[in-house]
Amino acid sequence: MPLAIVIAGIFILFILIARFKLNAFIAFIIVSLLVGVAEGMDFETVTKSIQSGIGNTLGYLILILGLGAMLGKLVADSGAAQRITTQMIEKFGKKYIQWAVVLTGFIVGIPMFYTVGFVILIPLVFTVAAATRLPLIYVGLPMLASLSVTHGYLPPHPAPTGIAVIFNADIGKTLLYGILVAIPAIIVAGPLLARSIKNVEATPLKEFLNPRILTDDEMPSTATSILTALLPVILIALASVIALVLPEENPIRKATDILGNPVMAMLISVLVAIYTLGLARGKKMKDVMDSVASAVSGITMVLLIIAGAGALKQVLIDSGVSDYIGDMLKGSTVSPLILAWLIATVIRVCVGSATVAGLTAAGIVLPLIANTDVSPELMVLAIGSGSLMLSHVNDSGFWLYKEYFNLSVKDTLKTWTVMETTVGVMGLIGVLVLDIFI
């Protein structure tokens, strides 16, 4: 019965979001209340559980996601994203253009939310495709594969960071493992896949046939752009590597632990970006702060959705459902990583949102961490991979891609949906391979 209530709750969540177009945060709160009461909790206890879940989830995440949004906005507004794109294309040349956009998407995608990265880079992709006279899908899909993978696998993006908090996974290890899994996933779902479907006819929207391109003087240098965009990754990864080779009492280890703390790494990166991408280029502090403020307002709903998922997770724990599911799955011979991936995939297909799918799945499979020796970091990546699977008509990303590339629904399914599914499958394969060695 407890499991049936959870399944019914997820079905109601799907109906509220997909059928009635209800805001995901409101839908999460309604479902949390219904599941809690149905599981035998009194109304006041359920309400306290929801408050606790929201507080525990946002207390840590709001710092990382807020600072991450600021960094992404500064990278976009300063022209650093365009500088990275143009330099990569210039260095790689027409023959290796796909690898240029893949690397660009990866570098720009790490600090930027998916939609922001898409809107910033797509006009540049259109320009590159026109200049090289290469098929638009051939040039564009590899870049989108990079953006999608960073969005689903890597902190500081909302879903992987939120799932890491739920599983108490190490952010640094999650990032390092995520990069290892991401590389083959991007190669297969990007350049290799695009070569097999490049004959699909796509044309850019008229509004983007002549996009505004910043002049050389308006953009920061290539080195400044790349180092500033990747600084949080460098700091977090450095701390994780040092932790593997130096003892805890070593002063260098202590210093890198501080610098590599995700919150500290993001704060340092934002402060550096304010100077390198703003003040050092002659911008006034007020203008830079206006840019930062607009970035924070843009992630409010993302934070609320994550908070709603945290509320449902806490209700599942406090009502005893998590323990029930954990006991039920104790004897399962299926790998917890595969189970987590499958659950995230099913929710993704039903709900559409990768963020909602990942966070909901994390709350359901949380007991698997306690009952097995599976790596929590790999669980984050397994769920992240599943949350990207089979994107179709209930996913906003599906329509964003369709409209910008002027494709039919059929051709969008043949290109976008296949790419997202390839990313999800390759992610699971990568996680299972890593599990052998970790």
Structure characterization notes:
- The chain is mostly helical and 438 residues long.
- It has 21 helices and no strands.
- Helix 3 packs across helix 8 and helix 8 (158-167) runs parallel beside helix 14 (300-318).
Short account of what is shown:
Helices cover 78% and strands 0% of the residues. It is built from 21 helices and no strands.
Radius of gyration: 21 Å
Order of helices and strands: HHHHHHHHHHHHHHHHHHHHH
SS-derived structural category: mainly alpha
Mean of residue pLDDT values: 85
Inertia-based shape: globular
Strand content: under 5%
Straight-line distance between termini: 36 Å
Specify the helix fraction band: over 70%
Number of helices: 21
Q: Tell me about the biggest sheet?
A: none
Q: Runs with pLDDT <50, length 5+?
A: none
Number of strands: 0
Key traits:
single chain; mainly alpha
How do the strands and helices of this protein lay out in sequence?
Blueprint: H1 2-19, H2 24-38, H3 43-77, H4 80-92, H5 97-109, H6 114-132, H7 136-153, H8 158-167, H9 171-196, H10 222-245, H11 251-260, H12 262-276, H13 285-298, H14 300-318, H15 321-329, H16 336-351, H17 354-365, H18 367-371, H19 376-386, H20 396-404, H21 409-437
